[in-house]
Design goal:
mainly alpha, three-stranded mixed β-sheet, Transpos_IS110, DNA binding
């Protein structure tokens, strides 16, 4: 069975054919298009495409064989691609946060805490600006800096943060 490699559209059909023990081969749609032009076929329709794909299956250079293993590898490729997209998105979000902090509360980054740590993010969500810290009770600031569990405690103290607000 031969078909054009059209992304996720043919995955279910491919899985069905592989389950039924058919041999499945993919042809690059760009190769089909170039071959159509090379042969001087101007019109594009399903009947002509089917004949063209059948003709291209006779030459190994136009197709690649698909197996259940290659389907699994494709899934891993997709997961890896998604992981990298999410990393890029996280980086963009962190840059947006940093830009906003530089505008609203630039002093916060002069402290010696790890940026984007749980304590940092928790504190900033509770107190997003210097003015929100200025009149807050010092005990509440200490509570916001306290981390739960046995992990590392925040190096920054409530007093250091209060000092930065300059009020």
């Amino acid at each position: 069975m031969g078909m054009e490699d059209t992304g996720h559209y043919m995955i279910n059909l491919t899985n069905y054919l592989l389950d039924k023990k058919f041999t499945v081969k993919y042809i690059n749609p760009r190769a089909t298009c170039l071959r159509r032009k090379e042969l001087g076929i101007s019109a594009k329709n399903d009947r002509k495409d089917a004949l063209l794909i059948a003709e291209m299956l006779s030459e190994k250079k136009f197709w690649r064989s698909i197996s259940p293993r290659s389907i699994e590898n494709g899934k891993f490729r997709d997961i890896t691609r998604l992981y990298h997209q999410l990393q890029e998105q996280q980086n963009q979000d962190m840059n947006r946060l940093q830009r906003a902090l530089d505008i609203v509360f630039p002093e916060v980054n002069s402290l010696s805490w790890t940026r984007y740590s749980k304590a940092y993010m928790k504190f900033l969500s509770a107190y997003p600006s210097a003015s929100s810290i200025a009149f807050e009770d010092i005990r509440n600031l200490r509570k916001a800096l306290k981390t739960e569990g046995r992990g590392r405690q925040c190096k920054v103290t409530a007093e250091e943060i209060r000092e930065l607000t300059n009020y």
